[in-house]
Records
---
Amino acid sequence: MSFSRFFSDDLKLYRQSDVRELLKVTEQKKVISFGGGLPDFSMFPFKEAIEVLEESLMINFQRAMQYAPTKGISQLIDVLKDLMKIEIGLDAREYDDMIILTGSQQGLDLAARALINPGDIIIVEKPTYLAALNSFKPRKPVIYGVSQDSDGLNTEELEKLLRELYSQGKKVKFLYTIPSNHNPAGTTLPEERRKHIYELASKYDFLVFEDDPYNLIMFEGQPMKPIKSFDHEGRVIYMSTLSKILSPGLRIGWIMAEKSFVEAIELIKQVADLHTSTLSQFIAIEWIKRKIYKEFLSRSVPLYRAKRDAMLSSLEENFSNEGSWTRPKGGLFLMMYLNRKIDTKELLKFSMKRGVVFVPGESFFHDSSGKNTMRLNFSYPTEKEISKGMRLLKEAYTELISA
Ligand SMILES: Cc1ncc(COP(=O)(O)O)c(C=O)c1O
């Protein structure tokens, strides 16, 4: 039977993520993966994490097994508010509210549903997070891109674009940005540019959708003040997640934003999944209260820093004449820009034969430019694998260019 004739027209608008496909390959056999964005759990404080759960889940067993409010368990909202205040100095204002999400990925989808009408203009970074593009595109927006330099989004270019659009009578709905330790670019936006973005949003009256999963994974200096901390009007939607500081398997993210927006998200979430897993929320409450995330970060950040350094020196050894790359101050990724106009999707075919994978850059660009770029993850492979994988990648590259 041909099943496809039953599908909706909109199904065509959903794209398979290249990263998901890669993860399937890496699950199947032993490959060196620079592909996914996986934390390294070798440093996870398992013993402490399990001990605190044993105590608390006994007491909270009935509640942890039950349905919960769509907005999330209020105790979790409270501990996350404290976490944001302590770690990044971010305080909820009187007009703000919070909702717990099933991973911040859900926030991308729900925010797209709440905000985007077909034809609305949204602005993203070039490159941006591919799953954000995959969430926005089915709502049929018109997407504009603003390039990044080594410090992240070029706000002068953003201002120029806004002037042009507004002179044509066009209004922007929102800017989606990942200001700290960017996925995939590995960039961190300085404070002046964060302020500049906010000023522009105020002046040209659009929203800022700030996605901040990597701020606490900082190798140099302190986490950055989010753009949300400059928000005195309620135009910044702040989103974060426990995926990179505790566990992606918990599937817990959150949005802090203006009350009526949070209400809208709550309404749509009710349809999507009723609420985020109660059990996960109870685990998260304990792990945050008992500072398991702090313990994990204090062990994993030095490890990731060493892995970043290993990747930077392997790149220097193998690719110094062939391209350039970002030098992330934190996070899990860096981006390589090859000098030659080769398609890294082709390179991936050659490197997979040698047992190394990465994510070709094209899918991180809303206009499918960036074919000669690639995202490289350094948090998951070991230092040894990084050095071996980079040698194999260079061999694959040499084979491709001489083919
Ligand atoms: C920028 C960004 N936003 C959102 C997500 C989704 O994360 P999760 O759904 O695990 O919270 C990720 C995951 O890698 C990400 O890098």
---
Amino acid sequence: MELESRLSRRVRQIKISATKEMPMIAARVGGCVSLGQGIPSFKTPEHVVDAVARALRDDPAAGKYSLQPGMPALRRAAAELLRAEKGLPADAEREVAITVGGMEGLLCAMLTLVGPGDEVIVPEPFYPSHVEQILMAEGTPVFAPLRREDWSLDPDAVAAAITPRTKAIIISHPHNPTGAVWAKADLLKVAELAIRHGIFVICDDTYDALTYDNEPAFSLASLPELRHLLVGVFSFSKRFALTGWRVGFAWAQEPLLNQMLKIHDAAAICAPTPAQIAALASLTGPQDVFVAMRAELEKRRNLICERLSAMPRMGHVRPRGAFYVMARPDLPQGAVADSRELAIRLIREAHVITIPGGAFGPGGEGHVRLSFGGDEAEINEACDRLAAWTKAL
Ligand SMILES: Cc1ncc(COP(=O)(O)O)c(C=O)c1O
């Protein structure tokens, strides 16, 4: 019997995201510079490497499973971070779980809250894995378009998306893929809607520390009146440049977190212990290296915007957070069918990896997402190639 028909409905309706697919296409082409996947170029800082190496040498527990919800010291440090940065009085033992990246925290939330018939509101353009996770939970994503002119959050669009079946809304802020940092007033209106309708808010704060122009991002995790409906998801990947270590954490009130921990146990048992040690060293060790990384990302943001502005046929909205910009090439009529063809041609002909905007929803069509996680030399080389390719069209 044919394999496809024997697979679960769940797996048949999801796909590997374009963010992972484009680098695979580029690997076959060779010689590409990447503005693709969101990976900060920084290597793991020395003090973090030292802490992990020391623990692996000296502590027999370092290579074994940790407690299922995570190492107590890391849960305490994570709770302290939430208290200090978001005013969230997190109880380390009852309300914080260490997860395999933010991604597994999101999945635990989704599989705990969402089932067949449930709708989840997703501001759009969206982070594709949010939608894949909703589908995995057999829920239905309902898009609430961002305002197209500046990618700001539109509370009216969120209100219009609410139905009696709405179970949750997912908020990625600062926003992937647009780099937008949203107005506190708009976020508060969304929180009000959630409270009025009893909708859970999955607050994906993966990029919380990465904002520019001295403007911090407001987090819904800091709102006391939302706590009974909140799942906060946080990551060590981007702010501490630990993408490969796969460690993050989740916050929810105890009864909800206990349910999420059942999924965590079935899916992962615990986050990798050496990665938890790296996360603890990142949180509790010297912070200057991370402050410098953020400053470097701001310089890269300035550079890529300058380079895009200098290209006569490349529109964009200046990002104020994360490390992405949606670029809108103004190509001759019929030059490419859609953003996917554009991204594939950019790989084959310009040797630049970008992510097709259509992969982030209908509002992303006509764009490619560029990451400025790479260093200045990479950004300059990729922009030289992009400029030459668009000029030659
Ligand atoms: C919006 C968003 N959420 C979650 C994640 C997952 O991050 P992690 O590496 O913590 O699993 C990413 C990664 O790119 C992301 O962009």
